[in-house]
Amino acid sequence: MADRLERLTNLVAVLLDTRRPLTLEEIVERVPGYPGERESYRRQFERDKSTLREIGVPISLEALYAFDQETGYRINREDYELPALDLTEDERVALHLAVTAVRLEGGAESAGGAAGREALLKLGGFEGRAAPTLDSIAALPDVPALPALFDAYRHRARVTFKYRGDTRCLDPYGILFRNGHWYAVGNDCDREAIRAFRADRIESAIEPGPPRSFERPVGFDPASALRDEPWRFGDEAPVEALVLVSPTQAGWVEADLGSKAVAERRDDGSVVVRMAVTNRGAFRSFVIGLLDHAEVLGPPELRADMVAWLTALAGEAASSGGGAG
Amino acid sequence: MTRPDAAVRLRRLLTIIPWIVDHQGSGLDDLAARFGLTVAELERDLELVPFCGLPPYTPDRLIDCEIVDGRVYLRFAEYFGRPLRLTPAEGFSLLAAGQALLAVPGADENGSLASALGKLAGVLGGGDGMAVELGAARYLDPLRAAASASERVEIDYYTFGRDEVTTRRIDPRAVFAAAGQWYVDAYCHRADDDRLFRVDRVRGVRPTGEHFDPAASAGASEGGLFHPRPSDRRVTLLLNADARWVPESYPVESVEETPDGRLRVVLVANERAWLERLLLRLGPSAEVLEPAEVRAEAEEAARRLLVRYG
Lengths: 325, 310
Fold this sequence. Notes:
The complex is a heterodimer.
Chain A: H1 2-17, H2 24-30, H3 38-54, E1 60-63, E2 71-74, H4 77-80, H5 89-101, E3 102-105, H6 112-122, E4 138-141, H7 146-155, E5 159-163, E6 166-178, E7 181-188, E8 193-198, E9 207-208, H8 222-225, E10 239-245, H9 247-257, E11 262-265, E12 271-277, H10 280-289, E13 294-298, H11 300-313
Parallel strand pairs in A: 3-4
Antiparallel strand pairs in A: 1-2, 5-6, 5-9, 6-7, 7-8, 10-12, 10-13, 11-12
Chain B: H1 4-22, E1 26-27, H2 28-34, H3 39-48, E2 64-68, E3 71-75, H4 88-102, H5 112-124, E4 130-132, H6 140-148, E5 151-159, E6 164-178, E7 181-188, E8 193-198, E9 202-211, E10 234-239, H7 245-249, E11 252-257, E12 263-268, H8 272-282, E13 286-290, H9 292-306
Antiparallel strand pairs in B: 1-3, 2-3, 5-6, 5-9, 6-7, 7-8, 10-12, 10-13, 11-12
């Protein structure tokens, strides 16, 4: 065991130190611990190489000399080394608090929490003692697609992936966490429009294109690109709906829609809110969420829509009130 | 076969050596705590270091590791002067955790965390395109204050599943964000049990002047938010293609695709109001397979809502 660790450590040192790529034979000659027979050391080296790549050591395969067929290995220092961050002690304490207080959690294969701690080690380890009261102030889901999406986002690489059965293409301008979900936000290259994709609904590996394949618009704000208030995002003719909300739900609805949406406050504590609707299905869902605490007052067509929808669901016993079998 | 232990230990060495190179004379205790190891594990790793270096592996080409009075000194390890770059998963996870903590209402936007994240983003690249929102809720601040001071409070709470508001005294132990919501983990005196309350459904918070002993009870939130029991009511639905969001949004016990491209899902639905909302929203996109009384309940709910339009 120690032998292999020793060999791996020496392999990293040799590949970092060399100024030109080393052939497999040169590596085996310089790094002790490889077997003598060619097929055996070749296999051994392949295993070592994949272990190094697994932990993120960037080994490149390059031509030995210009125009040369023969190739060799080396580690480019600028690909290997973490640039200096010059974190202060307070900043390291703050990051330590963050990985203690925020859990990234997912299924069994989730590595998010461990990855955050590994990152912290590279930045100088756990500074200070995280306060116990801060234990887990937030839990965010860890989604397999996220590291690859993040990598594409920071390198401005166009990505393709499968999403709800279709192959989609995205220039990822940003990554957003909202309402408990992660979204990749950017330019949908097929539809030529800003779109948000829920990362947990991506059905395949992320296929990245070359880096720097797009420019991110100046001042792009991922938060503004995601659609809140789904009833406002549709292509139906816009109408302004008025909804009466009972006192018990009035405060919550006002907080959700904003005070500007309140058209009328009644003495009993109920409110009438104004909603701009271009997606009737989403509007109906919102109102139904309030059950008998809400009523569509107008316009007449939306009120009639709601009555028709509910009547269809009320069954044959709509007037008698009896149960159906 | 890759032996995970060698990979783990190598990663550790490549992280610890640069720190010591930069901080000569660090104490073994401090190093062990800093890197999450026992002193014995650290010593075992450091024992290996003097055997590593460059050909021809003469003393001046091997790393010189000295431990004097519990303090560690390294020489001839210049090629290990910097730690490895962060992997995409590491960079993303640290940035996400930091941004999430910064998104907690009341966080200092100009404090150490913010400046650390600025430096981190500068090194990782990408600019300011990553954002974490945890949302806000009207009574978040008073509940967080009560939890941190172990103050018993009285709350008005809207129970979504039963569509009613009740008043209860609670001992709030912790307030946390999960699954897109803020929750209070508390002992509820009305239920005489531990409960999780959604902060956005709290309709009022009043002090009681009493305190509770935070060490007295363990906590309700361990292991997730939703635990179906065998006795819970199961409902089987047949969903059309436009209702595929249901299993993505709610915990379901099973999902099967039917030959005609619909989904047969079994979900746990104890709370009547919750199920009413779901079925009234889905309308013709869902068919209740069983139990039969749920069909009748949905119809009755539709009639009840229609009363307002009478």
